[in-house]
Amino acid sequence: MTGPGRTRAAGCLAAAVAATALGLAGCASDGPRNSAGQVTESSPADAFSLRVGDCTGPLTTGTIEQVVLVPCAEPHSWEAFAATELTGDDFPGAGSVQDQAEEFCNARFKDFVGVSAGKSDYDLTVLQPTRQTWTSAGDRTVTCLAGKDGGDIEGSLKGAGK
After folding, report:
1. For residues 50 and 54, what is the distance between their CA atoms, to the nearest angstrom?
2. Number of C-beta neighbours around residue 37 at 10 A
3. Inside any domain, residue 15
4. How far apart are the C-alpha atoms of 135 and 91, rounded to whole Å?
5. Which residues contact 68 (CB under 8 A, 6 or more apart)?
6. Domain for residue 155, yes or no?
């Protein structure tokens, strides 16, 4: 059964491009992990199982059902570096969610990479709740990712300074 969608906002400023991501909440594995929770081999996983510290392959625009988790020591495109939970019972609107998500992720990007998203060689992508996931799945999670689609990044971008 297909689960509710999530929004991917790509870019580092309010001019972000939004795309829908469909997760298979509770239906897909979150990938092979060691006892420390690190991904040990490339594997498809649903977007809801993405954890801070995980690396992924390229994230497509449009509707997707899964992300590909990749060990961070291997070439990858994105690294989840921060996450937060938004609050409230009622969905505040897509614009408000995007504004809150971008504010949170932009602030953490500089702390993580070492330069602001606007001055970095890397991009900022935000996975955020949609009205559907907010109301039907209780989704309040904003996940921040740094990288580039097809970026062939190896290792963490923590402290990359560029």
Report:
1. 7
2. 11
3. yes
4. 7
5. 42, 43, 44, 45, 56, 57
6. no
Residue 4 has pLDDT above 70, yes or no: no
Please list, residue by residue across 103-124, b when 16 or more beta carbons sit within 10 angstroms of its beta carbon and e when fewer do: ebbbebbeebbeeebeebebbb
Number of domains in the chain: 1
What confidence tens digit (pLDDT) does each residue in 58-76 have?
A: 987 754 458 899 999 999 9
Q: Identify whether the C-beta of residue 21 lies closer than 8 Å to the C-beta of residue 127.
A: yes
Q: Is residue 71 part of a domain?
A: yes
Which range marks the domain in which residue 62 is found?
5-147
* Residue whose C-alpha is closest to residue 128's, from 156, 90, 91, 76: 91
Pick 82 or 32 by higher pLDDT: 82
Q: Distance between CA atoms of 44 and 32, rounded to whole angstroms?
A: 10
User: Against a cut of 0.90, is the pTM above it?
Assistant: no
**pLDDT over 50 at 17, yes or no:** no
Give a yes or no: residue 157 inside a domain: no
* Terminal Cα distance for the chain, rounded: 42
Tens of pLDDT, residues 134-160: 998 898 999 999 999 887 999 999 999
